[in-house]
Amino acid sequence: MSDKTTIDNYVKKQLILSAEFKNALAKDAEMRKQFEVLTPFKQREYADHIRSGKLEKTRLSRLKKVTPRIYRGIGLYEKYKGS
């Protein structure tokens, strides 16, 4: 007998990028390189944050705001750590 919730804790979640994020990474090779260097957790943080915007305008705004953080190689919420 297996516990589904326990199994789900060990299954890696697939990285799902919004169309806006995919386009930005396709157009900007340097940003794509920096994004790929990030840990899978940080990549998922950014992807989920951008994708969760309901309107295209919101997703584009979020993408614009996080782009400098991606270039610096830091996670979405790292500015709050150690404060």
Q: What would you say this structure looks like, in words?
A:
It is built from 5 helices and no strands. With 83 residues, it is mainly alpha-helical. It has one domain (15-80). Helix 2 (19-27) packs across helix 3, helix 3 (29-37) packs across helix 5 and helix 4 runs antiparallel to helix 5. The longest helix is centred in the C-terminal third of the chain and has 17 residues, at 56-72. 14% of the residues are buried. The mean pLDDT is 89.
Give the topology, please:
Layout: H1 4-10, H2 19-27, H3 29-37, H4 40-51, H5 56-72
Helix pairs in contact: 2-3, 3-5, 4-5
Give a summary of the structure in a few sentences.
With 83 residues, this protein is an all-alpha fold.
Give the assembly state of these chains.
single chain
- Give start-end ranges of low-pLDDT stretches: none
Q: How many helices?
A: 5
Domains (count)? 1
Coarse shape: globular
Strand content: under 5%
Report the span from N to C terminus. Answer: 45 Å
Structure keywords:
0% strand
